[in-house]
C-alpha cells in the first residue's frame, strides 16, 4: 500500500469532517434540512472521490489550486461515469451540478487544514 493510501485510511474521519465544515456548509446543494440534495446522478463527487482527492494532495509537491485541479481532471474526471470517454466533456460540470468542480479550492483548503493540523500535532 502506498504511503498516501495508508495516510487516508488512518485519518479518513478527520477528512470527512473537514469536508463537511469547509465545503458542505457552503454548498448550494446543502439543504436547510441538513440533507444533501446533490443533482449529480452518481452522487456528490467530493465524497465519491475523497480518498483520491486526499491522495493527490498528499503526493503533490506544490499545493496550489491549478496543479491540483489539473491532476483531478486527469485522474478523476477520466474515470467518472458522468464524463465522455476521453474525460474532456461532462454534462454535469457544464450544468454546474458537480460539487467537486464548483468547490475545488474549498476541497483543497479542507485537506490542507487537516494536513497542517496533523503536522503541528507531531511537532
Ligand atoms: S453536494 Fe457534496 S459538497 Fe454539497 S452538500 Fe452534498 S455532499 Fe456536501
Ligand atoms: S466534473 Fe464531471 S467528470 Fe469530473 S468529477 Fe465532476 S461529474 Fe465527474
Q: What can you see in these coordinates?
A:
The protein has one domain (3-122). The mean pLDDT is 94. It has helices at 3-22, 45-48, 50-59, 65-77, 91-94, 99-102, 104-122. It contains 7 helices and no strands. The longest helix has 20 residues, at 3-22. It is mostly helical and 123 residues long. The structure holds iron/sulfur cluster (2 copies). Residues 23-24, 27, 29-30, 36, 38, 44, 46-47, 99 line the site of one iron/sulfur cluster. One iron/sulfur cluster (SF4) binds at residues 23-24, 27, 29-30, 36, 38, 44, 46-47, 99.
Q: In summary, what is this structure?
A:
The protein contains seven helices and no strands. With 123 residues, the protein is mainly alpha-helical.
* Strand count: 0
How would you describe the oligomerization state of the chains in this entry? single chain
Mean pLDDT: 94
How many helices? 7
Radius of gyration: 14 Å
Q: What hetero molecules are bound to the protein chains?
A: iron/sulfur cluster
Structural class computed from helices and strand pairing? mainly alpha
Which of globular, elongated, flat, extended, rod-shaped describes the shape?
globular
Q: How much of the residues is beta strand, in percent?
A: under 5%
The percent range for helix content is 55-70%
Low-pLDDT stretches are none
Span between termini: 26 Å
Reading the helices and strands in chain order gives: HHHHHHH
Which sheet architecture does the biggest sheet show? none
**Total count of domains:** 1
Amino acid at each position: 500500500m502506498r504511503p498516501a493510501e495508508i495516510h487516508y485510511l488512518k485519518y479518513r474521519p478527520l477528512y470527512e469532517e473537514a469536508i463537511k465544515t469547509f465545503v458542505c456548509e457552503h454548498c448550494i446543494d446543502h439543504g436547510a434540512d441538513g440533507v444533501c440534495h446533490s443533482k449529480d446522478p452518481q452522487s456528490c463527487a467530493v465524497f465519491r472521490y475523497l480518498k483520491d482527492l486526499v491522495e493527490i494532495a498528499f503526493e503533490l509537491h506544490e499545493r496550489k489550486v491549478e496543479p491540483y485541479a489539473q491532476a483531478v481532471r486527469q485522474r478523476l474526471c477520466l474515470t467518472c461515469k458522468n464524463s465522455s470517454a476521453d474525460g474532456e466533456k461532462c454534462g454535469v460540470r457544464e450544468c454546474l451540478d458537480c460539487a467537486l468542480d464548483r468547490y475545488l479550492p474549498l476541497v483543497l483548503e479542507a485537506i490542507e487544514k487537516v494536513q497542517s493540523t496533523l503536522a503541528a500535532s507531531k511537532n
